[in-house]
Amino acid sequence: MRKVAFIDFHGTIAYKSYSDTLQQVLTEAHPGHLYTQGTFRDLLDGSYLWDNPHIAHPELNRPEKWWSYMEGKLKDAYIELGYKKDAKKLTKRFKELYTDPKEYLVYDDAVEGIKKIREMGWIIFIVSNHMPELKKVVKGLPFNKYIRDVISSANIGYEKPNPKFYEFVKNRTWYTKRNIMIGDNILADIQGATEAGIPAILVRNSLFKDNENCQYFAKDMVEAAKIVEKNF
After folding, report:
1. What 3-state DSSP class applies to 16?
2. What is the pLDDT along the chain (232 residues), one digit of tens a residue?
């Protein structure tokens, strides 16, 4: 029986945030600045497409369209902080760093956990609210050999937990009889998957382990693999 494990990317198996990268870029260009990651987080709050998952964006499915939208938001943030002259150059540098696999932190338990799930016979898809180049990034990470494919919201026009996102990934894996979802976000990954009829495992985010939508909780991917082995 073919079975597919959908695994989230950011915050679940790897990490590099927009606010971290925006600050990193500004520090390269202007080492003496006083702005924190929190500054950028506040400036861009509500600006990301995944902040409004109920709104579809198929018109942005082409990478150049998606980046045109996103770069506009990033430039606005730098301009707001007084870097209008450098905003275009800073935004270009942001894209260079954010699409570079070497810039990503892979959690210590990610490779082992993913490997164990694959060895149980699960076909693994990464499904994430992310940028168009996510597949390129995954190819440069140590767990890539265990991944069948990567599905990013930027390429399909829907953000988790939009039902259309889960409809897309289920249609993409129509040949399977069993699915599970593993992720760190109680709304996007757990509630969204559950409402789509996909059992889900919450990882890392212990704040929500007692949430009514959380049937399974794992502290990391190795523990998630043990839950998969025992329950699925």
Report:
1. coil
2. 689 999 999 999 999 999 999 999 999 999 999 999 999 999 999 999 999 999 999 999 999 999 999 999 999 999 999 999 999 999 999 999 999 999 999 999 999 999 999 999 999 999 999 999 999 999 999 999 999 999 999 999 999 999 999 999 999 887 677 999 999 999 999 999 999 999 999 999 888 888 888 999 999 999 999 999 999 9
Distance CA 8, CA 115 (A): 15
Asked whether the beta carbons of 220 and 113 are under 8 A apart, the reply is yes
Nearest to 194 by CA among 205, 204, 182, 206: 182
Beta bridge pairs of residue 149 = 125
Could you identify the residue written with the tokens 């789509």? 196
Q: In terms of Cα–Cα distance, which of 232, 175, 178, 176 is closest to 201? A: 232
218 close to 202: Cβ distance less than 8 angstroms: yes
* 124 touches 114 (CB < 8 A): yes
The predicted model scores a pTM of: 0.96
Helix (H) or strand (E) holding 118, with range, is helix 110-119
SS3 state of residue 205? coil
**Dihedral of alpha carbons 187, 193, 194, 200, sign:** negative
90 forms bridges with which residues in the sheet?
Answer: none
Half-sphere exposure of 213 (CA within 13 A, CB side): 21
Q: At which residue do the structure tokens 């693994």 appear?
A: 124
